[in-house]
Specification:
Helix 2 runs antiparallel to helix 3. This protein starts with a helix and ends in a 10-residue tail after the last helix. The chain is mostly helical and 87 residues long. It has three helices and no strands.
């Protein structure tokens, strides 16, 4: 009789520990992930300008002037060379 009572207690304790583990896993899954805001921020000058335009920090004219400046600087630094094709 004593062995049977001990077996029931051990099984009950194992069930309680198993349920606690499952609850802890479910609670950990329910918590949202902490993702840094820097991952969603603009990664380029064009992205910064676009964000400023969308937020209303700059006007459309300022945006277009800035983008034209970026394009001119890019053309100066990395000119586009088109190979000639003779037919």
């Amino acid at each position: 009789m004593l062995i049977l009572s001990l077996l029931i207690l051990v099984l009950a304790a194992a069930c309680v520990l198993a349920v606690r583990g499952v609850r802890a896993d479910a609670r950990a899954e329910a918590e949202p992930l902490a993702i840094p805001e820097a991952l969603f921020g603009p990664q380029s000058l064009e992205g910064v300008l676009c964000t400023q335009l969308m937020d209303g920090d700059i006007t459309q004219r300022q945006y277009l002037r800035s983008m034209a400046g970026i394009a001119a600087r890019d053309e100066e630094r990395h000119p586009l060379v088109v190979p000639w094709r003779e037919d």
